Target: Adenine phosphoribosyltransferase
Amino acid sequence: MISIEDYIRDIQDFPKMGVVFKDITPLLANHLAIERCLELLLEKVGDEKIDKVVGIESRGFFFGMLLAQKLNAGFVPIRKPGKLPYETHKEPYLLEYGMDVLEMHEDAIKKGERILIHDDVLATGGTARAACNLVKKCGGEIVQCNFIMQIDFLCGNEKLKSYDVASVLNY
Ligand code: 5GP
Model:
């Protein structure tokens, strides 16, 4: 049985000094690792009915689309400012230094739709919480925030307390 940990590598001092970045590109480069990772992410979702998977730019798009296809759900991209062509909801969020904004199309989610939020990594949780706020603005019901991995010491799940948070790997 393939172990997906073997396909995630640590990159020291990226994107800046002192940070150890979890790089998923070896996992994306191996079809057996992709298959296993998708299987494990789906196990976390269980039997929940999902109407739409929301993937966060950009690494949330890879498995987000695969999850949507397997769950017979639609896919909705959440993007950085200025990338989406139609009217958007906007959600500012705090970075370590400064602010950023995420956007989602206003008509991407209908009131009451059951939503799975997906990203590759849960670190401090600011990005995922901004994504949750965007989904709530449209009236979506967040079934789960779903990640390949979570960096435990950064306590991202503290920012997602009102949601079900599921990660395949914990570091
Ligand atoms: P947070 O807002 O939880 O601090 O950061 C999560 C976001 O930053 C996610 O969109 C994720 O893709 C990215 N991110 C933060 N740290 C890492 C990392 O070590 N590896 C990868 N692949 N992405 C990271």
Observations:
- DSSP finds four helices and nine strands in the chain.
